[in-house]
């Protein structure tokens, strides 16, 4: 595509219009800067041109830089900074006409113009922090000069956009255009065509730049962006905007942008950006795969999971029939749903009318036959294969032809469940994570006979109910819980060898996880993990488990729900070590003849993180997950692995797979064959995904 095609030039009398045509979102990729510079040169050389309007063709202004160009050498990357320098020095007024979004480099481009007009619903923002970088084309220097220090920090540190209506209130937008944007922008350009001097943002000062504003921001990111580099750099640069000449801040911004861009954190966050988009693509399924229309849902079970799942559908405006076995259980479940909504309303996140609208979409029932008209039925009862088989046998006789029959099992064999029906092609696993109305992850479990239509519909449904769907295969625990099972085993082993539970958790907290393995176990309920271990032992014919964690459960300590598990809890739910638990662990070690040893934080971190990596590699090798990036997405959204580490597989790539293998072997673990092969060949999980064309 030629430069003239990417940025089209047209005239309306004395106004030159530059229209960026780089679909789908007019990203600032190669060709755009060249086209804009050529247009400015044409305007400068033509005395009949009094002003320039820059507008986006199609559905948006400029949605930001092309992230794929971040890995290019500097001389090959699109020259956004040079384009904005040219705009800033341009002798005639320039007007950015904004619709859709002006994000990142798009907003920086707009701030390089003399004026900005926008449709009222346009979105304006600098989201670079979400990719581990910072605004690198003047954003950190211009935004504080326009909206003041505090508002600029809020926008840059959150990365969240504001509406153009708010932009007008804070001075970022000069005029809102209610009618045709281009006509309004041209009319505005003629109004200000002769106004001099030109109001360049780079020549303004910064309002509200008291030292305590920046001190408070630095304190705030210790909680909101713990351990992250780019927020610190953003605050430093915003403070420079208030204290040094624009040229000095502009130069410093370029240096700090490269520092952030080349950091492991930014590489990880960019990996997450692309991995999440790839996860939505199902290998082997074309875009033309037909999907079913989901107009009504049925949920079996009104407990914690069933109620949470129902809320997702209600939030999306999909009517739900929820079935329980007793009136008491049904009333309890409906009460929890209503309380959840009313608590949200009390926080101002929805109105009371919204609460009633959602509750009005919910039909309670004690009769499974009331699900006969549902387009999808999700079973959400406790983890017992016999119970689930009974339910699916009954559903097979009740559900209408073509209805999707889904199980919310977190570990059980979906093929075995599907086999009791006459329509295994309609059966799928939809593993929601608890609390289901909050957690974004949805493992979509593809059974052997699940049809492509059911699979494609499930992925589309995930998007509709605002979940991040990832397709996985059938095995014990699928991807997330299979990996966390090995992780938990290693954590218990570390305590047996001499570590304290709080040291194990602290090591993973330091890595960036909000909860370590034992904090997570206490929250989920120690009795649940114990029941799973008992079930597995019975299936394999092994003795009932009697580890130190099982003994804690037998004392009646089941975690947060009983006020104590591995730790003690008060009303704040902050964990505190318990002396009796430590004594139980000491006794257990003595019985097993274990002499406890000091275990370094480095060993704790590596053994736990690399256990996840090793099991993830085995899952990849078995085809249970299609991509390493899928595993990372699962761990980010389901288990709190920090996005700035990129997920366990990206973290392993960053550490170097040869180093991961060496450490696994040093700590007595056998590396998975795929992991060993990649390490021996000097390859990475990212390279494996790329080689598979994913």
From TrEMBL:
<comment type="subunit">
    <text>Monomer.</text>
</comment>
<keyword id="KW-0442">Lipid degradation</keyword>
<dbReference type="InterPro" id="IPR006176">
    <property type="entry name" value="3-OHacyl-CoA_DH_NAD-bd"/>
</dbReference>
<dbReference type="InterPro" id="IPR036291">
    <property type="entry name" value="NAD(P)-bd_dom_sf"/>
</dbReference>
<feature type="domain" description="3-hydroxyacyl-CoA dehydrogenase C-terminal">
    <location>
        <begin position="477"/>
        <end position="569"/>
    </location>
</feature>
<protein>
    <submittedName>
        <fullName>3-hydroxyacyl-CoA dehydrogenase</fullName>
    </submittedName>
</protein>
<keyword id="KW-0576">Peroxisome</keyword>
<keyword id="KW-0276">Fatty acid metabolism</keyword>
<dbReference type="InterPro" id="IPR008927">
    <property type="entry name" value="6-PGluconate_DH-like_C_sf"/>
</dbReference>
<dbReference type="Pfam" id="PF02737">
    <property type="entry name" value="3HCDH_N"/>
</dbReference>
<keyword id="KW-0560">Oxidoreductase</keyword>
<feature type="domain" description="3-hydroxyacyl-CoA dehydrogenase C-terminal">
    <location>
        <begin position="605"/>
        <end position="682"/>
    </location>
</feature>
<dbReference type="Pfam" id="PF00725">
    <property type="entry name" value="3HCDH"/>
</dbReference>
<dbReference type="InterPro" id="IPR029045">
    <property type="entry name" value="ClpP/crotonase-like_dom_sf"/>
</dbReference>
<comment type="pathway">
    <text>Lipid metabolism; fatty acid beta-oxidation.</text>
</comment>
<dbReference type="InterPro" id="IPR006108">
    <property type="entry name" value="3HC_DH_C"/>
</dbReference>
<dbReference type="Pfam" id="PF00378">
    <property type="entry name" value="ECH_1"/>
</dbReference>
<keyword id="KW-0456">Lyase</keyword>
<keyword id="KW-0511">Multifunctional enzyme</keyword>
<keyword id="KW-0443">Lipid metabolism</keyword>
<keyword id="KW-0413">Isomerase</keyword>
<feature type="domain" description="3-hydroxyacyl-CoA dehydrogenase NAD binding">
    <location>
        <begin position="297"/>
        <end position="473"/>
    </location>
</feature>
<keyword id="KW-0520">NAD</keyword>
<dbReference type="InterPro" id="IPR001753">
    <property type="entry name" value="Enoyl-CoA_hydra/iso"/>
</dbReference>
């Amino acid at each position: 595509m030629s430069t003239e095609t990417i940025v089209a030039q047209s005239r309306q009398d004395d106004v030159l219009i530059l229209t960026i045509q780089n679909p789908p979102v007019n990203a600032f990729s190669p060709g755009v800067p060249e086209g804009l510079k050529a247009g400015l040169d044409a305007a400068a050389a033509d005395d009949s041109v009094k002003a320039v309007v820059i507008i986006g063709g199609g559905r948006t202004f400029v949605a930001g830089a092309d992230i794929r160009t971040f890995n290019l050498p500097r001389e090959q990357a699109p020259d956004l900074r040079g384009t904005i320098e040219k705009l800033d020095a341009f002798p005639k007024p320039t007007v950015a006409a904004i619709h859709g979004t002006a994000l990142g480099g798009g907003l920086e481009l707009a701030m390089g113009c003399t004026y900005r007009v926008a449709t009222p619903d346009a979105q304006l923002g600098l989201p670079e922090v979400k990719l581990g970088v910072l605004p690198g084309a003047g954003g950190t220097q211009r935004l504080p000069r326009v909206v003041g220090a505090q508002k600029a920090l809020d926008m840059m540190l959150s990365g969240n956009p504001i509406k153009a209506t708010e932009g007008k209130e804070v001075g970022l937008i000069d005029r809102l255009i209610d009618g045709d944007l281009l006509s309004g922008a041209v009319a505005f350009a003629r109004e200000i065509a002769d106004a001099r001097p030109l109001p360049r943002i780079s020549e303004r000062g910064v309002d509200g730049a008291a030292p305590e504003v920046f001190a408070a921001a630095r304190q705030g990111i210790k909680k909101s962006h713990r351990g992250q580099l780019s927020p610190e750099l953003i605050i430093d640069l915003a403070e420079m905007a208030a204290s040094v000449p624009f040229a000095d801040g502009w130069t410093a911004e370029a240096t700090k942008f490269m520092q952030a861009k080349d950091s492991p954190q930014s590489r990880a966050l960019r990996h997450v950006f692309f991995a999440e988009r790839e996860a939505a693509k199902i290998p082997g399924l074309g875009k033309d795969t037909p999907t079913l229309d989901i107009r009504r849902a049925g949920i079996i079970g009104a407990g914690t999971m069933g109620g949470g799942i129902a809320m997702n559908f209600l939030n999306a405006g999909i009517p739900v029939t929820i079935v329980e076995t007793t009136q008491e259980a049904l009333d309890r479940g409906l009460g929890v749903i209503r309380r959840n909504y009313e608590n949200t309303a009390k926080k101002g996140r929805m109105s009371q009318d919204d609460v009633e609208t959602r509750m009005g979409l919910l039909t309670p029932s004690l009769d499974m036959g009331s699900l006969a008209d549902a387009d999808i039925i999700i079973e959400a009862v406790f983890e017992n294969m016999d119970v689930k088989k009974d339910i699916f046998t009954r559903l097979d006789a009740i559900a209408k032809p073509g209805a999707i029959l889904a199980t919310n099992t977190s570990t059980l064999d979906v093929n075995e469940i599907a086999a009791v029906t006459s329509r295994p092609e309609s059966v799928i696993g939809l593993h929601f994570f608890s609390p289901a109305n909050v957690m974004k992850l949805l493992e979509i479990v593809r059974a052997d006979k699940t049809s492509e239509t059911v699979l494609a519909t499930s992925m589309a449904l995930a998007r509709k109910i605002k979940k991040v769907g990832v397709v996985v295969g059938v095995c014990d625990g699928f991807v997330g819980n299979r990996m966390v099972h090995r992780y938990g085993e290693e954590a218990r082993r570390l305590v047996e060898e001499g570590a304290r539970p709080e040291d194990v958790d602290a090591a993973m907290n330091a890595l960036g996880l909000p909860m370590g393995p034992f904090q997570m176990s206490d929250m989920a309920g120690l009795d649940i993990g114990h029941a799973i271990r008992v079930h597995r032992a019975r299936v394999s014919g092994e003795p009932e488990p009697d580890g130190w964690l099982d003994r804690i459960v037998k004392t009646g300590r089941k975690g947060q729900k009983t006020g104590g598990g591995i730790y003690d809890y008060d009303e704040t739910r902050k964990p505190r070590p318990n002396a009796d638990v430590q004594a139980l662990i000491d006794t257990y070690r003595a019985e097993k003849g274990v002499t406890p040893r000091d275990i370094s934080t480095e060993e704790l971190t590596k053994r736990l993180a690399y256990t996840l990596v090793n099991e993830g590699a085995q899952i990849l090798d078995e085809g249970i997950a299609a991509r390493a990036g899928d595993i990372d997405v699962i761990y980010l959204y389901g288990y709190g692995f920090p996005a700035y580490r990129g997920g366990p597989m990206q973290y392993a790539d960053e550490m170097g797979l040869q180093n991961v293998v060496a450490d696994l072997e040093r700590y007595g673990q056998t590396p998975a064959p795929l992991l060993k092969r990649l390490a021996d060949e000097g390859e990475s999980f990212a390279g494996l995904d790329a080689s598979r064309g994913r």
